[in-house]
Amino acid sequence: MHMSTLLIALLTAVIIGVFLVRHLTAKPWLTVSQPDDIGPLQIPALKVGLWAFFACITSLFALFITAYLMRMDPNHASDWYTISKPGILWLNTGVLVISSLAMQWARNAEKSENIGGLKTALAVGGLFALAFLGGQLIAWQQLKNSSYFDIANPAVGFFYLLTAVHGLHLIGGMYVWGKTCFRTWRRTTIEKGRLSIELCTVYWHYLLLVWFILFGLLLST
Amino acid sequence: MAYVAIADRDHEHHLHDPQTFITKYIWSQDHKVIAIQYGITAISVGVLAMILSAMMRLQLAFPDVFSFITPNNYYQFVTMHGMIMVIYLLTALFLGGFGNFLIPLMCGARDMVFPYVNMLSFWVYLLSVIILMASFFVPGGPTGAGWTLYPPQSILPGTPGTDWGILFMLISLAVFIVAFTMGGLNYVTTVLQARCRGMTLMRMPLSVWGIFVATILGLLAFPALLVSAVMMILDKTIGTSFFIPAVLSMGESLDHLGGSPILFQHLFWFFGHPEVYIVALPAFGIISDLISTHARKNIFGYRMMVWAIVAIGALSFVVWAHHMYVSGMNPYFGFFFATTTLIIAIPTAIKVYNWVLTLWQGNIRFTVPMMFAIGFIFTFTHGGLTGLFLGNVTVDLPLSDTYFVVGHFHMVMGVSPVLAVFGAIYHWFPKISGRMFNETLGKWHFWLTFLGTYSIYLPMHYLGILGVPRRYYANGITDFIPESAQTMNVGITIAALLVAVVQIIFFVNIIWSLRNGKKADSNPWGATTLEWQTPDTPPKHGNWGPELPVVYRWAYDYSVPGQSLDFIPQTEPHHGHDSVDDEDKDKK
Q1: Which chain A residues have a beta carbon less than 8 Å from that of B320?
Q2: How many other C-beta atoms lie within 10 A of the C-beta of residue B397?
Q3: Of B560, B585, B586, nearest in space to B572 by CA
């Protein structure tokens, strides 16, 4: 649990740093002017919601990773056998990087009002994300057909578990991507479309970062 | 531009006006209706859990009388009682119920910022309850693994419900967590984003602070339960060995060679201890508001109360292993967790002192909500102090798994939050329904519940010190347990049944008052906070009429010297120099 403790401590420190020091020292019972308060944040609610969601799923992934490290502790785990990871994971990583870059391209195109570029970039981003998911399924199949496959080996169990959890989050992202595409092609509400492109892009980058961490963990153990 | 309410911006916030009966009361996106939906569902399932506890008590007092309570049934009752009360009643009621009702009203918003997701949150919660209830009807019945669901026993033959019950439980928990996350993101974002003009963070009532911090805890802690539930589902269904060690089951060696049951315990309690505060922090906040309002006195040490809520929330993540002192952990580990556990007593004690100091020289009105609030101070202090015993490793070891533990946690997170719930329902009932409840029935309800629960749990501490173990179907004949312990068990059961029955008074009062209660004023308690300043009682969809309220002061201006009334609503401007507009000018 060390990592998650560290994470929570870090998050808490940030919260305390931001709120306690700057804002929670007000004396609301006085009738004179109050020290500055952040008031409602001057950013869209959806963005705040997404960052709160990031906090939540960061905790989820951190706990999965902590469980992974605790389970493979050599003092206890006599049944942990390192497995050879399917080579296609490297290709998948590249595909996900392209997907993330394409989403960033979409965001930039939106900013510069380049509608054609935006549509192309969104399509590329989504298709490469789909290709990543397909590639992960192939990786699953490859491991299943290999001699390493033994579901009682926790290394195998965790491989499937971590990739599945990451993949499910990407599938959730694909739903929002679909909605964003729908809006972009119809171009009815520009403002809302802009926000969902931005949030989609941030989410894609976040999931890429998570994948780097998970992939690094899988490769190094 | 310091305070621009999000709710004032058309493109940010669309109110979905209900058109039909279905959109108004069933697929409603109104936070008040969703709050009531959460409340009714949670209380219904809580009544079931109370009936289960009555069955357990009957078995303990009269071990040979009830043939339908088999050992398997007993464990199933214990498990379902615990899980329902902690998760499906208290968490859902405090956050889904009171969180939904109070946050927008107390912050001056028209609704939650994501009303559709809010509606979805309730329906997914209901689905989790249905899945849980379905486990009563599957072959083998619900799981009897204890609410902590420790593997390997929870998924291996021998424990009741290992075929289907445990799966239904785990799936239901996973679904609940999805529902909670949808609600939780709403509560946090609404508090941060949808406060009205002038409502600074430090002008928020403590109820909102408690719910806000508890929600953050939930968003960070529930993933631990999700992780453990998912891994256990995989262990059960496809044969992974995350938690199942090398073990003999029914005389046969299983394929597993080295899973870690302790890993499950760490994950479970990393969720489980913050869960205590997910339930306690909203109760703290509500009790603060109740005491201040009904003692006609500003809350003592408001800033310290806010800091204490934040500090307790942060510390609650570094005490989890005090639930695991007997798991064979490294003694230094125990030392660390005992220390953090004792440290958390400091902000908690600050809160208790501040409640008492708020009462000191207050103009105390012994209304029904106030009686429940004062009752809470007693039961919570009691439960908190016995927690100090159990937080110390050396004292915990002999008391572990005895009735002392049962007495402790029921006082601190059973009775106390339930008293807060009752106090809160009585307090906000006039606003929710537009009617007053019957005061006499309310007082009967309080005294019988308060004294009754003390008669249940105080003797349990004594049983625990004698060494009577918890979770046993029947104690049988043992050398170290005197026969008088059984007499005490009978007494406890009688008290428990009495307390269960007197809850009927509460339901009768509420249902009767809904139709026949005296019409309530918009602010019958003379309270300062925004929910009592709505143009309509009960508040209509959108809460505030055409204009959002503007807040000029904190939530605790009671008995201000030189004022004709003993309260000043938050919407009342300061006469003279200071107003929100002045503040805006200052900033410009």
Answers
A1: 1
A2: 11
A3: B560
Placement of tokens 């703290």 in the chain: B284
A164 part of a folded domain: yes
Please report the sign of the dihedral spanned by the C-alpha atoms of residue A90, residue A93, residue A95, residue A97: negative
Inter-chain contacts counted by CB atoms under 8 A, chains A and B: 187
Examine residue A121 and state whether it is found in any structural domain, yes or no.
yes
- Cβ of residue A37 closer than 8 Å to a chain B Cβ: yes
- What is the percent of chain A where pLDDT is above 70? 82
Q: Per the structure, how many domains does chain A have?
A: 1
Token pair listed for B78 = 């214990």
Average pLDDT, chain A: 87
pLDDT for B584: 47
Q: Is B511 helix (H, G, I), strand (E, B) or coil?
A: helix
Rounded to a whole number, what is the distance in Å from the CA of B119 to chain A's nearest CA? 16
Planar angle of CA B506, B443, B368, nearest 5 degrees? 90
Shortest distance between the Cα of B254 and any Cα of chain A, in A, equals 11
For residue B11, is pLDDT > 50? no
How distant, in Å, are the alpha carbons of A155, A159, A162, B242, B577 from that of A217?
Answer: 11, 10, 10, 17, 61
Q: Is there a contact between B352 and B377 (Cβ–Cβ < 8 Å)?
A: yes
Contacts of residue B243, Cβ cutoff 8 Å, sequence gap at least 6: B151, B152, B231, B232, B235, B259, B260, B261, B263, B264
**3-state class (DSSP) for residue B50:** helix
CATH of the domain at A59: 1.20.120.80
* Tens digits of residue pLDDT in B36-77: 999 999 999 999 999 999 999 999 999 889 999 999 999 999
Q: Chain A 39-58, CB below 8 Å of chain B: which residues? A: 39-42, 44-45, 48-49, 52-53, 55-57
Do B445 and B526 touch, CB atoms closer than 8 A?
A: no
Cα–Cα dist B578/B555, whole Å: 17
Return d(Cα A192, Cα B12) in angstroms, integer.
9
Query: Hey, what are B501's tokens?
Result: 């029955």
Domain-located, residue A31: no
Which of A66-80, B71-85, B329-343 has the lowest average pLDDT? A66-80
Q: Give me B498's structure tokens.
A: 């009495």
pLDDT tens-place string over residues B299-325: 999 999 999 999 999 999 999 999 999
Q: Which residue of A has its CA nearest to B270?
A: A1
Mean pLDDT of A32-44: 62
Range of the domain at A76: 2-21+36-220
Classify residue A165: in a domain, yes or no: yes
pTM exceeds 0.80: yes
State the ipTM, two decimals.
0.91
Residue to test with chain B: of A11, A14, A29, most B Cβ within 10 A: A29
Q: Are A78 and B307 inside 8 Å of each other by CB?
A: no
